[in-house]
Request: fold
Amino acid sequence: MSKSPRYTALASSLPSSIPFVAPEKTERDTGADFRARLGANENVFGASSKVAEALTAAVSEIWKYPDPEAFDLRTALTAHLGVAMENLTVGGGIDGLLGVLVRLMIEQGDAVVTSLGAYPTFNYHVAAAGGVLHTVPFIGDYEDLDGLISAAIATNAKLIYISNPDNPMGTYHSADVIADMIARVPDGCLLILDEAYIETAPSDAQLPFDLNTQNVIRMRTFSKAYGLAGQRVGYAIGHAGLIQSFDKIRDHFGVSKLSQVAALAALQDQEYLAHVISQIDVGRKRLYQIAHENGLTTIPSATNFVSIDCGRDGDYARLVLAHLNDQGIFARMPGVAPLDRCIRISVGTPKDLDLFAEALPMALSTNL
Amino acid sequence: MSKSPRYTALASSLPSSIPFVAPEKTERDTGADFRARLGANENVFGASSKVAEALTAAVSEIWKYPDPEAFDLRTALTAHLGVAMENLTVGGGIDGLLGVLVRLMIEQGDAVVTSLGAYPTFNYHVAAAGGVLHTVPFIGDYEDLDGLISAAIATNAKLIYISNPDNPMGTYHSADVIADMIARVPDGCLLILDEAYIETAPSDAQLPFDLNTQNVIRMRTFSKAYGLAGQRVGYAIGHAGLIQSFDKIRDHFGVSKLSQVAALAALQDQEYLAHVISQIDVGRKRLYQIAHENGLTTIPSATNFVSIDCGRDGDYARLVLAHLNDQGIFARMPGVAPLDRCIRISVGTPKDLDLFAEALPMALSTNL
Reply:
């Protein structure tokens, strides 16, 4: 047997991991399919029927490489958002875009600031680049914007990550508050504003685009309200120089042909999007109601999920969650205290939520 | 306006680029569609009809995240190849897999060896990691295996890249010769054996898998013979420890749901694959014939393209190519001398090749 190849010191130090246990894996391991899929904040209502039509029409073209510039999709997105082509790049979901951005900015030892309990995949990309993560606790289930800015100044951070509305709690800050935060980002630091859930947020969360500002980049996705999590399409909006820098290292053919087609068709059916958003709102209200009927409190949600406060500590919430999973309800929960007193339930179909309503009292009573 | 974010020194040094000008971009720029698409070594015969059926059945599932472990596809691939699950990982085409592998091994200043004129996207990933590329000229239109090994020893290289069959010339080395090369890879160096075109190669190119060997990783794709270039699915086969290391930094959700479904369906239709391979063989022979009728020589091809020697220097071949492109024949050519005396024509449908047969004499006479 030959000697091992030589990994970088950084790669040698990293663990091999699968950051999220997929529901498919649990199903394979247990031999039982979930009855309701409420753990990954997917859009259970699915994509527009226009997407299926567009995909069917495009299947005969999949022998061709995808357009590395995603021209048609970027043209439609920039028209929809009122920004220029030079201000928008497309990538393999926000996950893929975060990976590229982190590699552009972060090398061994560079400081990065995020909230304690925020998106694990961002942290994974920071670790892969050798960055040093500094975390700021939530305050009252909201990301602590002042704390994030202070930490960035104190650590000379190159990146700050926030999501608005946020995951895993579902709260949001108004656009005015976010604009004020952006104005306070220290020079030489870039704020990553992850807006994965922006479509389901109230109108006062919608921040206008200011593309002269160099210290913020906004990321959005087709995975949530548009119902295309399987197709991995996200986009980043920012200053032209920053957006152009993605072309230094990105995988140019990384967004598949059918993914580009699906995203374009989804974008073009805003009527369906509005319909889905109203269904999500109905689902959120139903989740509040189910929780309240069980004597639990809820965190007001601007997203397609509701965090339900189980009223005790993380150990208790983990037991409740495990029991729900055992009953065939795929759900997840925040990873760190005190957020982990909650379980996080994605909006489901009425039938999904009936199943949850049936399972929750049993999960709670079993663990009393 | 705020100050610029702080890029890494490496990122600051890199150019923004689109490594390949897509035919779609040329079509947008000229306002005219190509009549024959023979430049990207796509499979013009398309994917199996089973792929269309599987995609149609899966469209209703695209609101779900893809399986990050690509379990079904990996199960089928490993059974087909006779390797264990731990020896195979799936990624966003060979492009995506090369990017991850380079990041695992290469940091600023590390030496990498490849052939002069070989795959540009590999070089792009090496540059993005700060690696130093050492190139070895082809010998008589074949990659110079001895020269690559010698260069790896001389430069203390961490990676050697070869493709077999090779791109852009279409030649191949027999499995015995490749096995002998693998045995001579220096300790601590990893040979990347890109087998993108292996399905169209003769049987004596088919190297058995030896998964105890740590200094080779083999990469294959659904983009060529399987006809799924648009869907971005590749796989890497190697020693378990090396394959597991991809889980340190890869984008786990990077291969879309429909891409996994399409690749699985394509793999399961080996009868169609055999049919396509026979069509590709017919097309290669037709390309030889067209070239010979025009007084040109051809490089024997083990791939789905033929390199045609235009008989003079690169400047002349570039003129011929430009004239073909002007006549609506999308083609490409090798980038460096002496390979660039050739133009590279992908196998097309009979109609595509009729168009090429009609255009080539004009391209040659115009440039006499």
In short: Chain B touches chain A through 93 residues (CB under 8 Å). Chain B has 13 helices and twelve strands.
